[in-house]
Write a structure and sequence with these properties.
434 Repressor (Amino-terminal Domain); Rossmann fold; 3 domains; elongated
């Protein structure tokens, strides 16, 4: 085999020369197409790896007259949920040999959202994922994105379009239901901001599960997803409602971290005196003191299905995944235990958990 040509960028023609096949055969291997023998495919793949060949996506886009770039409009990537949506959407794009770019929003204003969409369209993206967690009417975007495929990622737009959701309400119901199974009848809620879709639906889930059990709603204190706000909200519960709750459903794990600190500073022991359940299952949740029982969101599936929804709109022959709802799961750890003296309740069956 001849030495690789000393060029800054190795081309498909260089690889063809090194392997002794046509550039069309190399192209079929790079693009995962059939009609190439296993032996030839293996030889070409070996050379591609040895010379460090990287496909020229711009040239591919020009040749096919189709973009290979996916765009994401998002907000608040400093928070766990939005950051995970971005990370897993990018990973799912790379697995399909698509490039990925995002445009962030600072304020929940229609003009800022329109600017972000226009920015991505200017880069000729093949489609746009939009994750905007607030309650905001985005019907104006129908005109902006008229010729660009769009997918709502855990977001409500005010109009019908392909979408992928995590069932936030169900997650909160599962958290509340587990506390009910442990004998708790007075359950408080540390609520996330209700102008966020997740905050509102998690609050609705907590309420619905208590009403289904024919129990009164426990006290509520509000936070903003941060550990500091969870600390302050828990202090409010302790100051104003102590004795009126034996357990707390917390809107996310960061707020739960702050709440644990507030209870600890008030010499209230978790889980002996208060049981606590979070939401998200952040990587550190199992290292809290005590390890945090929580609701796990499947962000990997969210990212993968979002990209599938997008590519189904632009690639003929792909299975159309127009809408999908992902069920979160309960992660049992040590921050929630049975109320002293309560009778053991049976665990809910899987069908009940889907309601």
């Amino acid at each position: 085999m001849r030495s690789p040509p000393k060029k800054k960028n190795v081309t498909i023609h260089d690889v063809a020369a090194l392997t002794g096949v046509s550039y069309q055969t190399v192209s079929r291997v790079i693009n995962g197409m059939p009609d190439v023998s296993a032996t030839t495919r293996a030889r070409i793949q070996q050379v591609l790896a040895e010379v460090g060949f990287r496909p020229n996506l711009t040239a591919r886009q020009l040749a096919s007259k189709r973009s290979t770039t996916v765009g994401l409009v998002t907000f608040a990537t400093s928070f766990y949920g939005p950051s995970q949506i971005m990370v897993h959407s990018e990973q799912a794009s790379k697995e399909l040999s698509l490039t990925f770019m995002f445009s962030g929003i600072v304020e929940p204003r229609t003009r800022d959202i329109r600017r972000a969409v226009d920015e991505l369209c200017a880069h000729q993206v093949c489609g746009i994922l939009i994750h905007l967690p607030w309650e905001v009417d985005l019907r104006d975007l129908q005109d902006v994105c008229r010729n660009v495929p769009m997918v709502a990622v855990d977001s409500d737009f005010g109009f019908k379009c392909p979408s992928v959701f995590i069932d936030q309400e169900l997650g909160s119901r599962k958290a509340t239901r587990r506390l009910l199974q442990l004998g708790h009848k007075k359950i408080a809620h540390l609520r996330g901001p209700v102008f966020w879709r997740a905050g509102r639906l998690r609050d609705v889930g907590w309420q619905k599960e208590l009403k289904a059990a024919r129990l009164p709603l426990g006290p509520v204190a509000d936070g903003d997803w941060t550990a500091e706000s969870g600390f302050k909200a828990a202090q409010e519960l302790i100051s104003n409602h102590w004795g009126k709750f034996t357990a707390v459903v917390v809107a996310n794990d960061q707020m739960a971290l702050g709440a644990i600190r507030a209870f600890e500073e008030s010499s209230i022991h978790i889980p002996e005196q208060i049981s606590l359940v979070g939401f998200d299952d952040i990587p550190e949740a199992g290292l809290f003191r005590p390890p945090l029982s929580t609701i796990k969101q499947d962000f990997a599936s969210l990212g993968r299905l979002s990209i599938q929804c997008l590519t189904a709109q632009v690639e003929p022959g792909r299975a159309n995944v127009s809408n999908h709802m992902i069920q979160p799961s309960f992660v049992e750890r040590e921050s929630a235990v049975r109320v002293a003296g309560s009778k053991r309740a049976p665990r809910a069956n899987p069908a009940a958990n889907r309601r």
